[in-house]
Amino acid sequence: MAKLSSLQNHSMPTGFFTHPAFIEHNPGSMHPERPERLVAIEDAVRKISLQEKLVFRQAPKASRADLLRVHDERFIEEISSFCRNQAYLPSMEAEVNEATLEAAYLAAGAGIAATRAVMDGELNNAFCAVRPPGHHATASQSMGFCLFNNIAIAAAYLLEETKISRILIADWDLHHGNGTQDIFYNSRRVFYFSTHQWGIYPGSGAASETGTGEARGFTLNRPLMMGDGDKEIIAAFEEELLPAMEEFRPEFVLISAGFDAHEADPLGSLRVTDAGFRRLSEIVYGIADHHAGGRLVAFLEGGYNLGVLGRCVCDILDVFS
After folding, report:
1. Per-residue pLDDT, 53
2. Phi and psi of 253, rounded to 5°?
3. Check: CATH 3.40.800.20 for 14-320?
4. pLDDT-derived band of residue 3, with 50, 70 and 90 as boundaries?
5. Would residue 19 show up in a list of annotated catalytic residues for this protein?
6. pLDDT, tens digit, for every residue of 60-100?
7. CA gap 10, 207 in Å, rounded
């Protein structure tokens, strides 16, 4: 069992977890979730002096047991078979190729390795530059470019294998993380907070969705309307998430960091800027520093403008380090 430290060690570096296999996963010609996304991020990181402050680590594969903490065994078997056949996976809305299954296991493994390294005091915090993304995947279904739910797998690992008992998952992707919400909807140990554009895929994330049973109030959705931008999304984090965290007091913080809410992204109609995403990073970093001893890991989700993606990930890394 990892020790639960009470204070952040600011002398420790920020981890950057990735793997060459993530670029080999190809969801199809002209697909928005394309390999060039990772290339753009890695190129941007290499071009700035910030890389000297980072520890680069290659993601390991998650084990089958790691996946089973979140996903149904039958689902894992079906996905494995589908990937071997290398066809179009309708629920994922993407093609799968010979690299997809390995990339998915590595994407899940990155989060576990990152959270473990933070728990062990090797890293201050970490960013997982992974694909396929994960927050749409439910326990039994791949969805929306996502195969396995990377952030949920990391959260389940923390709850089962460490002394962590309260986790915040903050999701600022353009799209609601229906899979993550669904997996923890009846849990009091995971607080799920999401800002997202209302009325688009996957159609969930209403403000009335707050959890079930004794976990009512542990899910907080803040739908945004077409044209909303920095003012609205920052207000949601400052006026709704911050007060909620004073009561919940998370011991570890995870971020579903999608950048498709950016004003220049081709998929959405929100108007968040680079400065807006940086402010969100600062707010969530502050929550982790104040409540969780600095324990913080972010996961790449959406974001399909390559220039924006590289800049915004570098901004997060700058805040983290």
Report:
1. 85
2. -125, 130
3. yes
4. very low
5. no
6. 999 999 999 999 999 999 999 989 888 899 999 999 999 99
7. 36
pLDDT at 7: 42
Residue type, 46: R
List, in order, residues 6 or more apart from 92 with CB less than 8 Å away: 27, 132, 142, 143, 144, 145, 146, 147
- The pair of three-digit structure tokens given for residue 219, joined into one six-digit string: 């899910």
Distance from C-alpha of 86 to C-alpha of 70, rounded to nearest angstrom: 24
The whole-angstrom separation of Cα 73 and Cα 13 is: 37
From the candidates 71, 136, 196, 291, give the one annotated as an active-site residue: 136
E strands, the chain, are 14-18, 54-58, 88-89, 94-95, 125-128, 167-171, 190-197, 219-224, 252-257, 296-300
- What's the rounded Cα separation, in Å, for the pair 93 and 27? 8
Task: Delimit the domains of the chain by residue range.
Answer: 14-320
Q: What is the pTM of this model?
A: 0.95
